[in-house]
């Protein structure tokens, strides 16, 4: 429950804030958000290309020094200030820095954009789940995916819809709107309580099957054989920080929003450690399954793992894996498990991304939960169908994803850490809050990791990516197309953030008192161990 003062006369009785039913529900939902498409199709390839087994060292360092600290930062902001990203950041900024709300809206807008194209990938996975029964992609999965299935055209904007994408995409949006409208406990939590165990079981079956394939040891040797020389390459360390950052769902509103639904006396850091290590465990499991399967494929082709193409992303999932499934014993079952897992992992992440948008709109404009879900979901569904169910959908998706993730989310993280720790000096308060409610205490090193190490690494990633995109472009696509769907995405997020932040609130978020008080009374400080130990 929010410890808020009386609301303005226009709404004397604000509705009580939704809550998770308990700690287990929150943990499963947070893991469901973190475990997504990137765990399955990004981590194995990134690890392989950056030192194999040796990559696990910078990966673990990145998890401990950036991933978990920034995850704790999100938790502290959302739980202490009891709102979606714009509400929580405005309250954190206080009377002198209410402009911080605009950063929250920037995060919301990026989440909105990601939701538009993320849904399309889930629709593809759902289609391929059905295709697995009769191996419909035939002998040439690449031609089937880009030609027969997506009908990929030239860069541009087309209204030539692809029915095979349109119908599953519409279905995904209908289910998503229903889940968002059902609320936190009956919608998001229930989906994760059902889907996450199913995902783990399905993927474990898939991994066990993969381990018994001919050539599986070849793939595992390729993945885990350490290249110790790679540890001297700064780009390998940047790749590790990048992987951790993108896989934990941090710094763009999700965990701020999720933490705001926890009870006021709720452990934050302990569950945070569970979420972080569960996410990394699933990534390693995915690496084992994927590379055992790639080892089988390489042996069947009579080539080395180095000679295979499509080891990450869309190519791995929708071209390489179908080719493998066609050659392996029991291929249809393996295909169903893989694409079923991909669908479930994507969907649990999707609803968390869209909850960021729905919750922010609900709070800003005083809407009911169902009205916000229907409004956000309806607008998103229309735009998603117009942009990503046409012959130009794949190209638009690829470019938008590149800019939204590598520019939008990273810029959001850099701004948030610098503004909160250095400009507003709220690090000690947030650290106190974590320690006041949690079993695992964080020391002063946490502020250093969030305020110094994190911004330095992330700023380097951001600058490096911007320079590369400006000088080299992306994917050989025309400059005007990158300007429209790439830089245009960032411009849209900035403009939307400014416009939404200056619009009037239906119910003022400023009549609010954070709990526990800071600075604390002496007995309160002793109860919270003052956070120093």
From TrEMBL:
GO cellular component, as recorded: membrane
Coiled-coil annotated residue ranges, if any: none
Xref: SUPFAM superfamilies: SNF-like (SSF161070)
Membrane spanning stretches: 20-41, 53-73, 105-131, 161-182, 194-216, 236-261, 273-299, 337-361, 373-397, 403-424, 445-467, 479-505
Localization in the cell: Membrane
Origin: domain of life: Bacteria
Pfam families with a match to the protein in the record: SNF (PF00209)
Membrane topology reported for the UniProt record: Multi-pass membrane protein
PROSITE patterns registered for this protein in UniProt: NA_NEUROTRAN_SYMP_3
The keyword Oxidoreductase appears for this protein: no
Keyword annotations from UniProtKB, A to Z: Membrane, Transmembrane, Transmembrane helix, Transport
InterPro entries reported in the protein's UniProt record: Na/ntran_symport, SNS_sf
PANTHER family: TRANSPORTER
This protein's name: Sodium-dependent transporter
């Amino acid at each position: 429950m929010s410890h808020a003062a009386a609301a303005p006369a226009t709404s004397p009785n604000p509705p009580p804030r939704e809550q998770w039913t308990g700690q287990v529900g929150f943990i499963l939902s947070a893991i469901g958000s973190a475990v997504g498409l990137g765990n399955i199709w990004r981590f194995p390839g990134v690890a392989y290309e950056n030192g194999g087994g040796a990559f696990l060292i910078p990966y673990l360092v990145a998890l401990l020094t950036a991933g978990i600290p920034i995850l704790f930062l999100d938790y502290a902001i959302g739980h202490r200030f009891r709102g979606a990203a714009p509400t929580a950041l405005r309250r954190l900024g206080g009377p002198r820095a209410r402009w911080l709300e605009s950063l929250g809206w920037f995060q919301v807008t990026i989440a909105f954009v990601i939701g538009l194209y993320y849904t399309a990938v889930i629709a593809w996975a759902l289609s391929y789940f059905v295709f697995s029964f009769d191996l419909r992609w035939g002998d040439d999965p690449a031609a089937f995916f880009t030609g027969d299935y997506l009908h990929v055209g030239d860069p541009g904007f087309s209204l030539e819809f692809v029915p095979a994408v349109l119908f599953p995409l519409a279905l995904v949006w209908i289910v998503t709107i229903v889940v968002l409208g059902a609320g936190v406990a009956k919608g998001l939590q229930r989906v994760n309580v059902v889907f996450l165990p199913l995902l783990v079981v399905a993927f474990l079956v898939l991994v066990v099957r993969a381990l018994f394939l001919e050539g599986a040891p070849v793939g595992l040797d390729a993945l885990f054989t350490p290249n110790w020389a790679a540890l001297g390459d700064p780009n390998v360390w940047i790749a590790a920080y990048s992987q951790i950052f993108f896989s934990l769902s941090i710094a763009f509103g999700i965990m701020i929003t999720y933490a705001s639904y926890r009870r006021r006396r709720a452990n934050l850091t302990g569950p945070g450690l569970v979420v972080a290590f569960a996410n990394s465990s699933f990534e390693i499991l995915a690496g084992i399954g994927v590379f055992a399967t790639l080892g089988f494929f390489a042996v069947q082709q009579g080539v080395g793992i180095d000679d295979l193409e499509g080891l990450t992303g869309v190519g791995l999932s929708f071209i390489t894996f179908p080719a493998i499934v066609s050659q392996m014993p029991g291929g249809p079952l393996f295909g169903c498990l893989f694409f079923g897992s991909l669908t479930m992992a994507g969907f649990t992440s999707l609803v968390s991304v869209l909850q960021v948008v729905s919750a922010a709109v609900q709070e800003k404009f005083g809407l009911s939960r169902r009205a916000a879900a229907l409004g956000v979901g309806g607008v998103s569904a229309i735009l998603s169908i117009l942009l990503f169910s046409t012959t130009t959908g794949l190209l638009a998706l690829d470019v938008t994803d590149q800019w939204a993730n590598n520019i939008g989310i990273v810029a959001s993280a850099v701004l948030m850490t610098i503004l909160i720790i250095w400009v507003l000096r709220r690090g000690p308060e947030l650290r106190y809050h974590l320690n006041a409610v949690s079993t695992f205490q964080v020391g002063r090193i946490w502020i250093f990791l969030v305020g110094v190490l994190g911004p330095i690494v992330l700023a380097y990633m951001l600058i490096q990516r911007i320079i590369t995109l400006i000088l080299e472009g992306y994917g050989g696509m025309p400059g005007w197309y990158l300007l429209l769907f790439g830089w245009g995405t960032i411009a849209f997020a900035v403009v939307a953030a400014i416009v939404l932040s200056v619009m009037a609130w239906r119910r003022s978020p400023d009549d609010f008192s954070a709990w526990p008080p800071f600075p604390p009374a002496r007995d309160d400080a002793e109860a919270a161990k003052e956070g120093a130990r």
